[in-house]
Design a protein that fits this description.
Layout lengths: L10 E6 L5 H16 L3 E4 L5 H11 L4 E5 L13 E4 L7 H6 L3 E5 L3 H12 L4 E4 L4 E3 L2 E3 L2 E3 L3 H16 L3
Parallel strand pairs: 1-2, 1-5, 2-3, 3-4, 5-6, 6-9
Antiparallel strand pairs: 7-8
Helix pairs in contact: 1-2, 1-5
Length: 169
């Protein structure tokens, strides 16, 4: 089944570290591939690490990878970005990365990824975590990040959330 259902495609932001380990990179590439196979557009920060791996997976599967770049030069995009969007906003562009997804998949990552998770949650986007941050409030686990145990489970959860968001539910 296509994520778009014959209409405008769903957009899923994939976020994570720019210096990720090999298992995280493999998971990100698989996430990108699966999203593209379901007809979704992959949105990333457009540079290295998780962004590059997810973009590669999407493009190799025949999909589209949008990279929302921090600087003013498209040349900073990784070679797998289909559409490069220059912002000149530095890390402030993190909000734009997640705002352009109907849902978000977070893999690993540091404080930049954490800021993207925060922006996504404030904006009402579902965040699916695959080895990503866990949030606590007052020492108690905060259940705002949907946990996934595999790339396939992360994609399924994100596409379901994206579809519900588009349908207004």
């Amino acid at each position: 089944m296509s994520a778009s259902g014959g209409h405008e495609p769903l957009y899923v932001s994939v976020i994570g570290g720019s210096d990720a380990d090999q298992p995280t990179m493999a998971a990100a590439q698989e996430v990108g591939r699966l999203l593209a196979e379901h007809g979704a557009v992959v949105v990333t920060g457009g540079r290295s690490g998780v962004a590059e791996a997810a973009s590669k997976g999407a493009v190799l599967a025949g999909g589209v990878a949008v990279g929302i770049l921090p600087g003013p030069d498209r040349a900073e995009a990784n070679p797998w970005v289909s559409v490069a969007v220059c912002t000149g906003m530095g890390e402030t562009r993190n909000a734009l990365v997640v705002m352009n997804g109907d849902a978000v998949i977070a893999l690993d990552g540091g404080f930049g990824t954490l800021s993207e998770i925060g922006h996504a949650l404030v904006a009402g986007r579902t965040v699916v975590g695959l080895g990503a941050w866990e949030l606590r409030r007052g020492g108690t686990a905060e259940g705002s990040i949907v946990r996934a145990a595999s790339p396939a489970a992360a994609v399924e959860a994100a596409l379901g959330a994206a579809f519900r968001r588009r349908r207004g539910g």
